[in-house]
Amino acid sequence: MEYAMPDAYEATDRTVPTRAKERARYDREQVHSILDAAYVCHLGFVRDGAPVVLPTLFARVDDHLYVHGSTGSRPLRMAGEADPGLDVCLTVTHVDGLVLARSAFHHSINYRSVVVHGTAHQVTDATEKRTALDALVDHVVPGRSANSRPANAKELAATAVLRLDLSEVSAKLRSGGPNDDPEDLSLPYWTGVIPVTSHRGTPIPAADLDESIELPGYLAAQH
Amino acid sequence: MEYAMPDAYEATDRTVPTRAKERARYDREQVHSILDAAYVCHLGFVRDGAPVVLPTLFARVDDHLYVHGSTGSRPLRMAGEADPGLDVCLTVTHVDGLVLARSAFHHSINYRSVVVHGTAHQVTDATEKRTALDALVDHVVPGRSANSRPANAKELAATAVLRLDLSEVSAKLRSGGPNDDPEDLSLPYWTGVIPVTSHRGTPIPAADLDESIELPGYLAAQH
Fold it and tell me: Are strands A50-61 and B59-61 parallel, antiparallel or unpaired?
């Protein structure tokens, strides 16, 4: 019998926000959907007692997140050196709108974010590493990994992959219009939401691209 | 005689990347321009020895960055409790393009990022706090703070502002096309860049907005 994954992640002390608790979500589907709509995350770790936050690509495969980098890069090296792994916080944020209230105080942002706490470990299994690297390419442009030269032995050796399991994780989101105080409703200020979207433009071929190579379907469909 | 600010921030052990050093920048103008083009940052701090990364609004005023939050929120509380302030890392990232190389290995992202290390302190001066709060609103929508009700005494008391000085800071960026290895140039894969931009859409008035209030000029000009 297949093990049935629970529908929601368990809330912990770290994943229950101190403020705006009603915006927190733990259901698996929503967490995955916010993660999968992004490809850049902000990865936090501690170095010499101080926080470091770096932007990096990530991909999700089931309940695992993967990030990669040169074997010489700081967090990757640290995850390899530290025996029990590297404590990280991986955060993904989408901005959906600017919320302009009548009062400065009630100005806000419509957003969807996911915060993952856990310990990242270097991936040592060759098959898992290849799967993760393919996922990292396909997470940015679905279909791309099959349409590029896979990593060779030298490139694989130069690339480290970290895995972070989705366990202590929560989403937080805000949507909708401004929430002005009743006594402010008659103030003479425009109020509403300015939608914010991310847009992929027309692909720009490399200067040295052979003219006989046409734009593949998985790219033509995106814009 | 006025003190002339140096044109560049001093590089430190923490702001010299271990990889891709040629992408690092320290000049003040470039750092400010990347910061000012964003309004959401990822703020990292250490809690119980583990990293925490949260998205939050920020604004720059000269060589100071400001973030704000409820006096009850975690980092704001921590900055107030910890006598010498709260060690933070504040990171801002813009994605400008997806770089599709012929090899999976050389896939990349065109981006501009800024990483700020330092100690954040609660702002206690009332004038500085007001200036910071106005800047936080105007950083998202220039001109907006003058066109909304300013915070009253109760709201000011409920809001904490943290200041982080720009001192240990660096920018990192990548632009341009793919850098394929010479032996890959004849591979039959499409290669180039997909531009990525952030877009502000048509403002959506709140349902309870008085119809006589027209869209102000500073909003009409943005989309």
Answer: unpaired
CA B146/CA A190 separation, integer angstroms:
12
Query: Could you give the number of structural domains in chain B?
Result: 1
- Judged by CB atoms within 8 Å, which residues 149-208 of A form the interface with B? 149-152, 155, 159, 177-178, 180, 184-208
Domain region containing B56:
21-179+188-201+209-220
> How far B2 CA lies from chain A's nearest CA (Å)?
34
Bridge partners of B82, per DSSP, are: none
Inside any domain, residue A37? yes
Q: What is the pLDDT of residues A91-137, one digit of tens each?
A: 999 999 999 999 999 999 999 999 999 999 999 999 999 999 999 99
Query: Which of B73, B77, B91 lies closest to A54 in CB terms?
Result: B91
- List of residues 6+ apart from B31 with CB closer than 8 A: B9, B25, B114, B166, B169, B170, B171
Partner B, chain A 30-69, Cβ-Cβ below 8 Å: 40, 42-47, 49-55, 57, 69
Largest CA distance in chain A: 68
Residue B152 lies in a domain: yes
User: Residues of A numbered 93-122 whose beta carbons fall under 8 angstroms of chain B's beta carbons: which are they?
Assistant: 93, 95, 98, 100-105, 107, 109, 111, 113, 115, 117
Q: What is the ipTM of this complex?
A: 0.93
pTM of the model: 0.94
Both tokens of A98, joined, read 């600017």
Is A5 part of a structural domain of the chain? no
Q: What is the pLDDT of residues A145-190, one digit of tens each?
A: 999 999 999 999 999 999 999 999 999 999 999 999 999 999 999 9
